Amino acid sequence: MCDKPISLRERKKARTRQALVAAALRLFAERGFEATTVADIAEAADVSPRTFFTYFPAKEDVLFAGAKDRIERLRDALAKRAPDESFLDALRRAARDILADRTFQAEAQRTHMQVIGANPALGARALQDLLAAEQVVAAAIAADLGVDQTDLQPQVAAAAAVNALRGALMTWFLSGASGDPQPAFDQALDLLEHGLGTLSAAASHHPPSSAAQASWGDAGPGDEAGHPGPR
To answer: Which residue stretches of the chain are H helix?
Structure first.
């Protein structure tokens, strides 16, 4: 089935929207979120403040402009899986599609994460989007298992999968936000797929760090008076 052609009007609207997002992120990086006004963003995008509010209800909404689209891409990838494709493989495919899209730009994503990290209220909004993505994945897993979406298995599996991708993105960000984030996404999902037991096995081959030993104090790691050892 062919996608419906996009009209000239819709293309113009998309360009204006993207110009507003690009201008906002640039100004947030230069001045900070709080110091940037809607009027500043509109002027930088060569539109009026009234036009800004045609596209975004408030200043913070421009920062989360791509969230809804990415959640819908995730929903679509899960809905259109082949019979033998797991939900983790569908997540890999959705991540590749999002990263390959021309609207995904590493510098813009880095600014996005910096601004959210510096503003707790924006972090709360980001959490809402994360939880929405979790429920999309939980619905797909529940359908696979033939159970209710609110059951423990789909909820835990979805939270683990979505937060594995969030952790991969954070790793990419903390390492300088250079290069392609996809390898980190793949590694995170591989870790989830093969189980965290692989981490436990690796950790058992390394002695506790000096910092960990210091935290145990005089009691030692297995002393009941200090931190209890493994049961």
So the answer is: 8-31, 38-44, 49-55, 59-63, 67-79, 87-100, 106-118, 120-145, 152-174, 182-194, 197-203, 210-216
